[in-house]
Amino acid sequence: MSDDRLEGVTVRPMTEDDWPAVRAIFEAGIASGDATFETTPPTWEQFDAAHRPDLRLVATVDGKVAGWVAAVPYSARAVYRGVAEESIYVDPSLQGRGVGRALLETMIAASERAGVWTLQAGVLPENGASVTLHRALGFREVGTRERIGWHRGRWRDVIVFERRSALADRPDGGEALAP
Ligand SMILES: CC(C)(COP(=O)(O)OP(=O)(O)OC[C@H]1O[C@@H](n2cnc3c(N)ncnc32)[C@H](O)[C@@H]1OP(=O)(O)O)[C@@H](O)C(=O)NCCC(=O)NCCS
């Protein structure tokens, strides 16, 4: 991490009022070409319907939204209820200064408290910042799905990362998290 790490990064739950800023940061991520296969951001209603209400966070710097992270359920099947997939985006003007790390650290803690036993992410191999961030915070590479996406006229690989909750693997973990 460079000496440019920002002081005063606050991470808090996302609200609907944050949506214009969240959407703009998502659009910048789409434009980067190595963040997502999405081509346009969703509406608030689509975003709201897809993402877990308890796992949506924004980072703010001087009161302004600097980045966000949110998770969708991996599956509607009960056996997978503790599996969620996160997406993380930081304002391009503030990338590389610790905002992503602050967001993902807080998301990991929030997800564990919420009973998530496996937090996962799909990352394009060209996305060095995201690969480094996920490795640094204890995600392991499950593997690379080769040529899984046809994106902007070429085949793209996706690295699947997952992070196992420490709470889940306590001796009583499975029982504690079971319904
Ligand atoms: C990926 C992203 C969320 C990371 O957030 P960030 O605020 O830029 O990252 P941070 O400053 O917190 O750095 C996180 C780690 O990655 C490293 N890193 C940052 N930028 C990097 C880069 N360009 N290449 C390699 N490593 C990098 C940092 O050194 C840091 O590691 P450390 O804390 O162990 O020193 C952010 O760059 C981003 O929004 N990118 C565009 C959207 C996107 O790609 N989202 C991810 C989709 S999977």
Question: Could you walk me through the main structural features you see in this protein, from its secondary elements to its overall organization?
Answer:
This protein starts with 8 loop residues before the first strand and ends with a helix. The chain has helices at residues 19-32, 44-50, 99-113, 128-136, 173-177, and strands at residues 9-13, 56-61, 64-73, 83-90, 118-123, 140-151, 154-164. With 179 residues, the chain is an alpha+beta fold. The model has no long low-confidence stretch (mean pLDDT 95). It has a seven-stranded mixed beta sheet. A hairpin with a 2-residue loop joins strand 2 (56-61) and strand 3. Helices cover 28% and strands 32% of the residues. It has a single domain (9-169), classed as Gcn5-related N-acetyltransferase (GNAT) (Aminopeptidase, 3-Layer(aba) Sandwich), CATH 3.40.630. It binds coenzyme A. Coenzyme A (COA) binds at residues 1, 29, 32, 35, 88-90, 95-101, 121, 123, 127-130, 132-133, 136.
- What oligomeric assembly is this protein in? single chain
Helix content: 25-40%
In total, the number of domains comes to 1
> How many strands in all?
7
The poorly predicted ranges are: none
CATH topology: Aminopeptidase
CATH class division: Alpha Beta
Apparent shape = globular
* CATH architecture call: 3-Layer(aba) Sandwich
Strand content: 25-35%
